[in-house]
Design goal:
It contains six helices and 19 strands. It is an alpha+beta fold and about 260 residues long. It has one domain: Metallo-beta-lactamase, Chain A (4-Layer Sandwich), CATH 3.60.15. It has a seven-stranded mixed sheet with strand order 3-4-5-6-7-8-9. Strands 10-11-12-13-18-19 form a six-stranded mixed sheet, covered by helices on one side. A two-stranded antiparallel ribbon has the order 1-2. Helix 5 packs antiparallel against helix 6. The longest helix is centred in the C-terminal third of the chain and has 16 residues.
Amino acid sequence: MPLPICRACATQFAEGEPPAECPVCADERQPLIEQRWTTIEELRERHRGDVREEEPDLLGIGMAPSFAIGQRALLVRSQGGNVLWDCIPLLEDDIVERVREAGGIDVIAVSHPHYYSSMVEWADTFDAPILLHAADREFVMRPDPRIEHWEGDSRSLWDGMTLVRLGGHFEGGTVLHWPAGAGGRGALLSGDVVQVVPDPGWVSFMYSYPNLIPLPGAEVERIAGALEAYPFDRIYGAWWERKIDRNGMAVVRRSAERYVQALGA
């Protein structure tokens, strides 16, 4: 039986009758206007993969036309193994071929529940485990033995890569620190936890982006402070073109200061 996918957030559900409303969208961080469903089979008929080289050893993987939240995933290549960072709902032959050409996937890590999408489909196809922070386990709509719920504030991978739990947007909100990125200057793959905004040279932090619910100033200061231990020059956000090319750590610092000042803290 085809598995249902929420059209609003692209979360894939387990086999069976879907719920009356998607719990991921019913949460106040994501708007639920009208509950509608699709399947990965229908997505394959209407969408295609969009794979681009972001920099050496980093592939962006999206879909065209855009669907739901519209994020793209990132495939980090390294000697110790490849990491798929975040996920998209579409998985089709062209994407599979490009990923296999790049060396496949050794582990999947997802920043927060809005990007869980079809992660189990990806894990099954590439025989890879999925690392999710345990604080967000309630939002897993398709449980699977491949999912490992890790705990704590960091999880080391290989070749210096680290999953860093920052919280904020979600309690288990995670970023990936890639020290080999940006030509060895370090890169931060930030999802929505540290949001790269349209204004060049700035980022932001929110509890809910579509519903415009801010985070407390102290929480933003904590997030910025936690990143001081992970040097990075470049930041990759969740969508195409959302990237800070230079001075990423300084951008986070001044953006956090501006945010706190705007709140009057």
